[in-house]
Each structure stands twice: as C-alpha cells, then as structure tokens.
C-alpha cells in the first residue's frame, strides 16, 4: 500500500514538473511574441516619425512656396495696376490728341481688326484720305481683337488714330457642332469695342467699319447728313453705307437713298440710345443676322444708299470668301462728291417715306407671266413684278442676278417686301411682295 502511495506521489511530481516546464515554455513563447510585436511597433513608430518629419518638411517647403507665390502675385497685381494706370493715361492722352474738345464729334469711327495687317493698312489709308480734313468731327480708332504683333504695329504707326486692344482669354463654347469659333470671337469683340466707345469715351454715335473696306469721297458728309435723321426719327435704327444689290449693273443714282427693313451692315452708324438697348442682350455669335430678327429691330428701319459708300475688298477672312466673286467684287463704290448738306432728306422720315416710295412704285408698269424678266428687259421706264412667296422671289431674283437671300421672312434690301434695283439702264425694277401694295396703300393693285 505504501508502495502504491509512493508511486502516486512520483507521478504527481513528474506531472508537476512537466506542467512547470510547459508553463515556462508558453511564457517564453509569449514573451518572444510580445518582444517581436514590440520591436515591430517600435519600428513602425520610428517609420511614422520619419514620415511625419518628411511631411512636415514638405509642408514647410510648400508653405514657403505659397508665401513666395503670394508675394509674386502681389507684385504682379501691383505691376498690372500700374500698367493699367499707364495705359489709361496714354489712352486719355491719345483721345485728347484725336478729339478736338472744342468740336462736338459727329461720330467716332472704329475699324474692327484682328490679324490682317495688309488689309488694315489699305483701309486706314482710304479713310485718312477723306477723314483728315474732318478729323475733329470723326475721331478715328482701330480696335484689335487679339495680339497679332503686325496689326498692333501697323495701327500704332499712325499718329492720326487711337489704338485700342481687346484681349479675351475665355474659351469659346459653340452652340452647335461644326460652327466657326471666329464668329463667336467677332461678336465678343464688337460688344467690347462699342461698350468702350459709348460708355468709356462717351461718344453719342459710332460708325463701325471693318479692316477690309475702302470709303467713298462723300462718306463723311453722307453720315453727317444722316446723323440728323437718326436723332430726329427714332423709327430709324441705324444708317448704313452699303447696298447688298449695289453691283455696277444694278445702280445708277448716287443721290438716291432708301429705307429698308433689312439691316445692311458693312459700314454703319448707330446711336448710344440704340446701343443702350442692344448691349445687355448682345448675342454670342452671328451679331448681324441677330440684328435682322424682328424681335431685335422691332419694326425700326435702316437708311441705305443706292450706290455704296463703302467697298469690301476682303476676299480672305472669317466668311472664307463667301459670295465675294459674285456679289462683293462687282460692287460700285461711289466716286461722286455729293453735297449732302444741300440735300433735303425729309422724304426719308417715317411720316413721309411710305407715300414717297408708294408714288414711285405706283408709276412702275406691272409685268406678269413666266417671261416677266424678258418683258422687263424690253420695256422702257420703271417696271414692277409681283412675286408670290419666297421660292418665287428666289427664282425671279436668280433670273436677274441679285441677292436671293432672306432673313427672318425679309429679302435683302427690301422695304415692305419690295426690292428695288436698276437693270442695266436708269430704269428701276421693283420686285413686289404679295402684301406689299396693300402696305404701301396702293389701291389700284
């Protein structure tokens, strides 16, 4: 029995020893694991500390750069402010140079330019030929869109004019695919230039020319006479020096002026009061077609001559020479020095013109039939041909060779739907719309 109890104690002792060693081994393994984790944690902490220091260094460098850039920006802003002040001072001096304060200008004249230095020179030389004697009445400006150095240099080489520059870095977003960006830039430039002349320099009227135009000898006298009409008759929106059907074979009388429902453009004058209305809603592109919309001209009309007072020689430009050979190159530029001061233009006022024009149309001999063009060619005196609708007008216009184009329901050059032109002689052809005679009050239609 004692032997069994001794064996039992030995077994307990062995078990205790084994348990002790097992516990010691587990403790050692656990301590080793904790030591490894602690070492990894220390290493990670050291890495984080290193990265933090690196980030702090980088932040310090960036902060230094930011401070440097802020200082550079401040200096540039100050330089820009000083440069703007200098430019404003130079511009004021330039304005004083080209504007005689003792003489109230009839209108500022602005040449819209971009990147055609050779065209610009030809235009300036043509204008100065007739403007020099009336420079105090017509201060001359060149407004350049962009920074073409040749254009800027050419414009600034003339002491007789003032140079202004439109710099626009805002990207252009066209409204329809395939549109030319140029038409959007042109519209921006026009608005900027006219805002400058009307609001910054406070002119009451502005004549807008482009950098591919020559002017007639009586250009300035014509606009001076027309300026009185603009002030007196608010149903006139603008005065133009252009006739779309002003080709040599379609004109004769340099003294004849017309009212038109169609905006001609290409050398035109408007007043500050009209610009006050147009400027806030000026379009993003195609400004000339925009002006031809009824919602914008609101029933007001335009004065145009029979014989053009401007000639457009711009075969190369934004319109890519469209219509140049057929319609622009054959234009007749007036070469007669008309004494506009001696002319009574009261027939052009709203109250007088409809009756004046109706009397001329009434006297014209009506011609009918599919061979109306041939008949008109063989008739002496004025002739009137009635068209039924736009396709009919386009077919008849094509037979004669005049502009076929319409805008917003109105054919080019028309007054109450009537398009008038000479035809190889002094006789006039009147293409009369389906409702024109009623609008003119001609009862024997």
Explained architecture:
It is a single chain. Helices cover about 45% and strands about 15% of the residues. It is of the alpha/beta class. The longest helix is centred in the first third of the chain and has 97 residues, at about 1-100.
Tag the structure with descriptive keywords:
elongated; 13 helices; 15% strand; 445 residues; alpha-1,3-mannosylglycoprotein 2-beta-N-acetylglucosaminyltransferase activity; alpha/beta
List the helices and strands and how they pair.
Blueprint: H1 2-98, E1 108-113, H2 117-131, E2 140-145, H3 149-156, E3 162-166, H4 181-200, E4 205-210, E5 213-215, H5 219-232, E6 236-240, E7 257-260, E8 268-271, H6 272-278, H7 287-291, H8 294-297, E9 301-305, E10 310-312, H9 324-328, H10 350-363, E11 365-367, H11 372-377, E12 383-386, H12 390-400, E13 406-407, E14 410-411, E15 419-422, E16 428-432, H13 436-440
Parallel strand pairs: 1-2, 1-4, 2-3, 6-9, 11-12, 12-16
Antiparallel strand pairs: 4-8, 5-10, 6-8, 7-9, 13-14, 15-16
- Beginning-to-end CA distance, first to last residue: 154 Å
Number of strands: 16
The value of Rg in angstroms is: 40 Å
Largest sheet: 8 strands, mixed
Along the chain, the helix and strand elements come as: HEHEHEHEEHEEEHHHEEHHEHEHEEEEH
Task: Give the strand line-up of the largest sheet.
Answer: 3-2-1-4-8-6-9-7
Average pLDDT reading: 88
The number of helical runs is 13
* Percent of sequence in beta strands: 15-25%
- The helical percent reads 40-55%
Shape: elongated
- Category by helix and strand content: alpha/beta
Give the uncertain stretches in residue-range form: none
GO molecular function: alpha-1,3-mannosylglycoprotein 2-beta-N-acetylglucosaminyltransferase activity; manganese ion binding
GO cellular component, one term: Golgi membrane
Membrane topology: Single-pass type II membrane protein
Cofactor: Mn(2+)
């Amino acid at each position: 029995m004692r032997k069994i109890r001794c064996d039992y104690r030995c077994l307990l002792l062995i078990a205790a020893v084994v348990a002790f060693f097992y516990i010691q081994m587990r403790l050692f393994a656990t301590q080793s694991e904790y030591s490894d984790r602690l070492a990894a944690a220390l290493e990670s902490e050291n890495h984080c500390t290193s990265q933090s220091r690196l980030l702090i260094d980088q932040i310090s460098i960036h902060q230094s750069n930011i401070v440097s850039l802020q200082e550079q920006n401040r200096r540039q802003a100050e330089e820009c402010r000083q440069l703007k002040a200098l430019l404003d001072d130079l511009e004021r001096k330039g304005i004083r140079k080209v504007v005689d304060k003792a003489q109230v200008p009839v209108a500022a004249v602005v040449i819209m330019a971009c990147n055609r230095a050779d065209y610009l020179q030809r235009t300036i030389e043509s204008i100065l030929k007739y403007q020099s004697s009336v420079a105090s009445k017509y201060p001359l400006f060149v407004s350049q869109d962009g920074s073409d150095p040749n254009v800027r240099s050419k414009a600034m080489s003339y002491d007789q004019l003032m140079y202004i520059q439109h710099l626009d870095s805002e990207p252009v977003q066209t409204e329809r695919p395939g549109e030319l960006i140029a038409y959007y830039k042109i519209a921006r430039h026009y608005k900027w230039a006219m805002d400058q002349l009307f609001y910054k320099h406070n002119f009451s009227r502005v004549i807008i020319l482009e950098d591919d135009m020559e002017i007639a000898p009586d250009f300035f006298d014509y606009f001076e006479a027309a300026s009185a009409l603009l002030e007196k008759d608010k149903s006139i929106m603008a005065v133009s020096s252009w006739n779309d059907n002003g080709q040599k074979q379609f004109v004769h009388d340099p003294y004849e002026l017309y009212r038109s429902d169609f905006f001609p453009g290409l050398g035109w004058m408007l007043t500050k009061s009209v610009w006050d209305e147009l400027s806030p809603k000026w379009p993003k592109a195609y400004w000339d077609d925009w002006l031809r919309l009824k919602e914008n001209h609101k029933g007001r009309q335009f004065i145009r001559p029979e014989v053009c007072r401007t000639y457009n020689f711009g075969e190369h430009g934004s319109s890519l020479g469209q219509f140049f050979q057929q319609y622009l190159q054959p234009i007749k530029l007036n070469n007669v020095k008309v004494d506009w001061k001696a002319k009574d233009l009261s027939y052009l006022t709203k109250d007088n013109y409809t009756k004046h024009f109706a009397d001329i149309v009434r006297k014209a001999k009506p011609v009918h039939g599919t061979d109306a063009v041939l008949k008109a060619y063989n008739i002496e005196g004025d002739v009137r041909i009635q068209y039924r609708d736009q396709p009919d007008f386009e077919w008849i216009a094509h037979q004669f060779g005049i502009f076929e184009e319409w805008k917003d329901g109105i054919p080019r050059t028309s007054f109450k739907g009537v398009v008038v032109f000479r035809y190889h002689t002094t006789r006039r052809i009147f293409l009369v719309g389906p409702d024109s005679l009623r609008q003119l009050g001609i009862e024997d239609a």
